[in-house]
Amino acid sequence: MLLFVLSVGLSVTLGLMNFINLAHGAFAMLGGYTAVWLMRQFGLPFLLTLPLAFLAAAAVSILFERTLFRRLYGAGELNQVLFTIGLVFVAAAGATFVFGTGQQPIVLPDWLRGSVELFGLRFGIYRMFLIVVALAITGLLYFTLERTRFGAQIRAAVDNQRVAQGLGLNVERIFAITFALGSGLAGLGGALAIEIVGLDPSFGFHFLVYVLIVVAVGGLGSVTGSFVGAALLGIGDVAGKYFVPEIGSFLIYLLLVAILLVRPMGLFGKR
Amino acid sequence: MFAKTTYAIALAAGLSVSYQALAQETVKIGLIMAYSGPFADTANQMQAGIDLWLAEHDGMVGGKKVELIKKDTGGPAADVAQRLAQELVVRDGVDIIAGFTLTPEALGAADIATQGNKMMVVMNAATSVITEKSPLIVRTSLTIPQLNYAFGKWAVEKGGVNSAYTLVADYGPGHDAEKAFAKGFTEAGGSIVGADASPVANPDFSAFVQRIKDANPQSVYIFIPGGAQPPAIGKALSDRGLTPPDVKVFGQGELTLPEALESMGDTAKGIITTFHYTMERDDPLNNEFVKAYRDANNGRSPDIFSVGGFDGMHLIDEALKKTGGDTDGAKLVEAAKGMAWDSPRGPISIDPETREIVQTVWIREVQEVDGKYQNVIIDQIPNVKDPLHGAAK
Amino acid sequence: MSAVAPASSDPVAWLRRRSRLSVFEIVFWLSMLLPFFFFPTYLTLASQVAITALFAISVDLILGYAGIVTLGHAMFFGLGAYVAGLLSARLGWGEPISGLFIAGAFAGLVGFVASYLIVRVQHMALLMVTLGLGFLTYELANAMTWLTGGTDGLSGVNTWPIFNHFRFDLWGYTAYSYSLVVLLLGFLISRRIVNSSFGLALRGIRENVRRMPAIGSEHRWHLQKVYTISAAMAGVAGALLTQSTNTVALEVLSFQRSADVVVMLILGGTGRLYGAILGSIIFLLVRDQAAGLNPQYWYFWIGLLLMIVVLFLPKGILGGLSRLVRRNG
C-alpha cells in the first residue's frame, strides 16, 4: 500500500492536469526530510509531522508551479519529462548538500511497531496503519473530486480551459491548488515511506519508476485506478516472489507491459 | 596515422616526464569512486577515512605532499571507471590509483593499472576475483567469502544450529556471500534447507520471509546491501515472528550497521553478524580512531568503508617509505606484499601471494548496552584469508 | 533544417538537394579530428562521446523523426554491448568489425520483435511500455549471471586489433579513430534515411498519424522499419563501447543511460541529426568538467542545464541557433 500512498498524488497531477511530473519523487523526498527534521530538531511526534510534511511539499510546489511549471502545461510530454527530471537532479544535489548522503532513520512511536495476530496470520501494525491512511486518502479525494463544487471546477477546468475561463472560473488558481494537492500528497507519502524504505538523497529517483508504473497501470486521473493499480502490483509482486522467486523481479514489468498493451489507457483510464 | 601516433606518444611521454620531475615533491593519488548516485554514501565514508588519515599525517605520504584527484563514476559503471583511470594515468599523471567503491569500477580499471604500471589500491570493492585481474592490485577492504566461509563454519560449530535458510540480494556480492556461507555451513555438517535471492532494488521482503517461515529452519542467513534494507528485513522478520532466540538470524555486518540498528529497534535484538570491523570494539587504537573520526565528521561514526580508506592510505604510506619514494607500480606492490600492521579493526596483513588482506573476522551479537542496541563481540576468528584464493593455491 | 518549400516541383530533386553535404558539415567533421592534435589526453573521452553520439542518433531517428518517445532505448545499446562482449568472452571471437555486425543484427532483430508492441500504443502508455521493456531486459541480464557476469560485469573480453593491425592502445588513439569512422558511417546512413521518401513518410506520421493512411502510407509498417533500424544502430554503438573498453557492466542497460540519451537529444535539438551529436558532446563535456571540479554535486549543473534548455530553448540548442540565424539573416 506504500506504493499507493506515494503514487496517488501523481495520479492527481498527471491524470487531472495532464502534466507529467517526474519531480513527484522530489516532493516526496522533501516531505520525508521535513518529517525527519521536525522529529529530530523539535522532537515532534510522528503523527504530527505527517500533515506538516504535506504542507511543506504543497507550499514549495505552489512556488514552483507559479514560477516554472505553468509555462510547461502546453509543452510536449518529453519536455515535461525532461524538465522535471532536471528538477529531481537539482533536488538530489540539494538534499545531499543539506543533509549529507547518509540514511535518515526515524523512530516510530511504540504503538505503531510490532505486529498483531489476526486469524492465524501476523500483520505488521505499521502496514495496517498505511492501509488505513490509504483508504482515508482515497475516500477524501474521491469525495472532493466527485462530490464537491471544487471538484467539479477542477474537472471543468481540465476538460476545457477556455470554456471554464469563460464561465468565470479562475483556472489558474484551480490548477495551482490541484498541483499543490498532488505534491502535498507526495510529501505525505514520502514521510510515510521512510519507515519502510529509508530516506537518502537518491530517494527521488528510486521510487519514481514504481510510482509511474502504478499510475500508468491504474489509469490516468483515476484515484480508484491508482488504488487498484497499487494493490494489484503490490499483491502481484508479493505473490510472484512467493510462488516463483526466480522471476520475482521481472514480474512487475511483465505485468506492466501486458496490461498496457491490452488497455493503453490503464485499467481505469477515462480518456 | 602512424606519424600522429608517434607524435602523441612523444607528447604524452613528454608530459609524463615532466610529471616525474614534479613527483619529487608530491605524490598524486587518483581516486575513482561513486561519489554521486545510489552509492554516494559509501564513497563519502571512504573519503572521510582517507581524509582522516591525511589529517593525522599532515597530508604527507612517504615524506611527500599528497595531491588527491577525485573522479566520480556515478555508480557501477565499468566503462566510465576505465576511462577515468585512463585519464588519470595519461592526463593527470597520477602515481597511484585508489578508491574503488564497487566491483565493476575495479574490474574496469584493472587493465589500465597493468598497462600504466601503477599500483592500484582497492579500498572497498569486495568480490574475490578482483585481485586476479592485475598483478598491481592490492586490497585493503575485505572479500565477501573471507567473512562468510568462516562464519558458516562457526554457525554450526559454535552457533548451535544445523539447518539454515539463506536469503541474499540478487547481485554479485549476494551470490558470493550465499556460496561462501553455504560452503562453510555444509562442510561443518549443517544443511541448507532453502535459498532465495531478492531483487536488489525492491525492499519488500514480506513474500520471502513467508517462504522462510514455511520452510521452518533453525536459522536464517541474510546478506543485503546496507542502507534502507536492513530495517525493512528486520521488520519483516519480526512481523512473521522469525526472531532470536526461536530462530537464529545470521548475516553480514551491513545488516546491523548503527544507522540500521537505530531504526530497527527491538527487532534487531539477538541478530548475529560477521564483520571485519566493529566500531564498538574497546581497543585503544580503535577508540582513538572513532573519536577523531566523529570530531571530523559532525558526529557521524566510522564504518567498514571508512576503515578501508584509512588503511589504504596507511599501506600507500608504508610502501612509499620502503621504496624510498619511488612510485613505480611493480616496486610499490612488491613493498606492500607481506606488510603487517595494527589497524583500528585489529591486526591485519597483506598476503604476499595473493595481495589480499588477511584479517580477524569478528562475530558480533546485537545486545542492549546502556539502553541502546549495539554489536557486541562474542567471538573472533583470527588471520582469515580469502578462502577462494587460499583454496586455489 | 528549415522547412523551405521546394523550389522545383520535382520531389526527387528536392530530396537530393536536401541530402547534399554543406560546407559547414565538412568543417564540422574535420573539426572532429582536432582531438588528435590538440587534446591527445582526451581521446578516451572523445571516443566515448562518439559512441554516445551514435547512440543518440539512433534515438533521434525514432524520437525526432518518427515521434516515438522512448525511455528504454538503452535496452538495445546494452544488447549490442553484451553480444559483442559474449562473442569474445564466451566464444573467443574478438574480431571487432564482424562483432559490430553481429551485435547490430541481433539488436535489430530484437528491435523488430519489440516493434510489434511499440506501434500499438501512444503517449504515456508508449513511454511506460518502453520503460518496462528496458527494465525487463536489465533484470534479465542481472538474473542470468552465469552468462552476463551479473552485477560484477562481464570480464575477459579481449578485442583483437582492427584489421590485425591497429591495437587498442592506452591513449585511446585506435578507439577514437574507430568510433569516429563508425559514427560517420552511421550518420551518413541516417542522413540517407531521413532524406528519403521513407524519411518524409515518418515525419508525416509524427505530424499527423491519422492522415497518413488516407494518403496511402502504411504508417505502422514504416514505424516498425525505423524502429528496427534504430535498434540495430544502438546495438552497434553498444558493441563499440564494449570493444573499446573490454568490459561490459550491467549499467549499459540501465534506465539512467536511456534517460541520459534523451536528455542529450533535447539539449542538442530533436529532429536534427547534428543535434544528437552536439547534445552528446555538450552533455559529456559538461559532465566531465563538472564532475572533475566537484565529484559530489556535478549533477546539480546537469539538472539546471536541462531546466534552462527546456524553458528557453524548447527546440534544443541547434533549434535555438537556427532561429537566431533566421531572425538576423
UniProtKB/TrEMBL annotation, chain B:
Residues of the signal peptide: 1-23
SUPFAM superfamilies, per the entry: Periplasmic binding protein-like I (SSF53822)
GO aspect biological process, one term: amino acid transport
Occurrences of domain Leucine-binding protein (ranges): 26-367
InterPro entries: BCAA_transport, Leu-bd, Leu_Ile_Val-bd, Peripla_BP_I
Coiled-coil intervals, chain numbering: none
Pfam families (UniProt xref): Peripla_BP_6
Alphabetically ordered keywords of this record: Amino-acid transport, Signal, Transport
Highest taxon, organism lineage: Bacteria
Family: Belongs to the leucine-binding protein family.
Protein name: ABC transporter substrate-binding protein
